[in-house]
Each structure stands twice: as structure tokens, then as C-alpha cells.
Design goal:
- The protein is of the alpha/beta class.
- The chain has 2 domains: 1-32; 34-180, Response regulator (Rossmann fold, 3-Layer(aba) Sandwich), CATH 3.40.50.
- It has 8 helices and 9 strands.
- The chain has helices at 2-32, 35-50, 73-82, 98-102, 114-120, 138-141, 160-165, 172-177; strands at 51-53, 61-67, 89-95, 106-109, 130-133, 145-150, 153-158, 168-170, 178-180.
- Strands 3-2-4-5-6-7-9 form a 7-stranded mixed beta sheet.
- The chain is globular and about 40 Å long.
- The termini are far apart.
- Mean pLDDT is 82; it is low at 23-31.
Length: 190
């Protein structure tokens, strides 16, 4: 019996390794994500709590779209499975066309897609989509929220006029964390 186990031992260990291999690749995906990218994903998920949509009372699924292909898809999909927003299921989709964008509640535009998105922007319906980017001037030209890096940390730029135009409202807690842009005639009040 013992000799038989010794002969089968290499097969046993190969089987264990084959069973654990998918788990190792999942852990590798978690490790390889840039911390800044992970922080942006946390913000995007949390926007579901700190932004008010006029149409979400009747929607069962909440959709976060990523324009083009970006590393943020991995942590966003992971976090969307782990968390829900007020009982709603959070879907994460890679989008590239106007029809796909129209079903999004939040649309994230990575920096390398900002020029292509800028050309597409006039054709996107203005209401009920939170447009979030990470390129210089995004919150003043194409969207409502922009990720910036200051003092080694990810910060937010928020354009309240763009939020109002999209029929969205940011909570005072979120506004306190942000640099407000496009505020020449609207002073922030708590």
C-alpha cells in the first residue's frame, strides 16, 4: 500500500497543483493592479452611494461602463461582485459605441481614450450618465468628475454645472473631498 502511494504521489501533487492554479491566477490579478487604479475603482463604486440619479428608483441593475479597454476593469468587476449599491446589482461593462454608453449610469473614460471620447461626446445624451475621466481638463470639457493626482494621492475634480446638466446631484460629503471646477458663479455651500 505504501509503495503504491509513493508511485502515485507525483500524480497526486500534479492534481493538487492543477486544482489550485486558477486560484493562483486570481490572486495574481489582484496583485498586478496598480494601487492608483484600484483607488479609482473604489471611487467609481462609491459614486453609486454619493451621487443621486433621477431615474434609478425604478432600475434594478446599476451599470458602470469603461470606454475602451483599461486595467480598471479587473478591480471594478471584482468589487462589483463583492458589493451592491442600495440593493441594486452593479454591472461592469466595457463599452465602445453610443448605444452601449446610453445604458450606463456611470461611464469611465481612461486617459488613453480621452481624445476618441471627446470626438464622440456631442452624440452622447446629456442626462443621467455620470461621466468620469482622468485626463487634464476632463471635468471642464467632457464630464462631471475627473481623477487627478496631488501629493501622491488620487483626488477628485467635480464640475457641479455638469452634474446639474446631467440631472445628477453630488452629496455634500463628496463635494468636501473634491476640488470644484467651473465654479465662477456658484459658490459652494454646505
Amino acid at each position: 500500500m505504501f509503495k503504491r502511494f509513493i508511485l502515485l504521489r507525483p500524480l497526486f501533487f500534479r492534481g493538487i497543483i492543477l486544482l489550485l492554479l486558477p486560484l493562483l491566477s486570481l490572486q495574481a490579478q489582484r496583485v498586478r493592479v496598480n494601487p492608483d487604479t484600484r483607488m479609482k475603482a473604489v471611487f467609481l463604486i462609491n459614486f453609486t452611494k454619493y451621487i443621486s440619479w433621477t431615474t434609478l428608483d425604478t432600475v434594478k441593475n446599476f451599470t458602470i461602463g469603461v470606454y475602451g479597454l483599461d486595467d480598471i476593469l479587473v478591480p471594478l468587476r471584482q468589487m462589483s461582485k463583492e458589493r451592491a449599491s442600495e440593493g441594486q446589482k452593479i454591472m461592469v461593462e466595457r463599452v465602445s459605441s453610443i448605444k452601449e454608453i446610453e445604458v450606463c449610469d456611470i461611464l469611465f473614460v481612461p486617459i488613453d481614450q480621452s481624445q476618441a471620447f471627446h470626438e464622440l461626446r456631442p452624440d452622447i445624451p446629456p442626462q443621467n450618465i455620470l461621466l468620469v475621466g482622468e485626463s487634464l481638463g476632463f471635468a471642464t470639457s467632457d464630464g462631471a468628475i475627473n481623477f487627478i493626482k496631488r501629493d501622491g494621492k488620487i483626488k477628485l475634480e467635480i464640475n457641479r454645472k455638469a452634474l446639474q446638466a446631467a440631472n445628477l446631484t453630488a452629496s455634500s460629503h463628496l463635494l468636501k473631498l473634491a476640488v470644484l471646477v467651473g465654479e465662477e458663479e456658484i459658490p459652494f455651500r454646505d
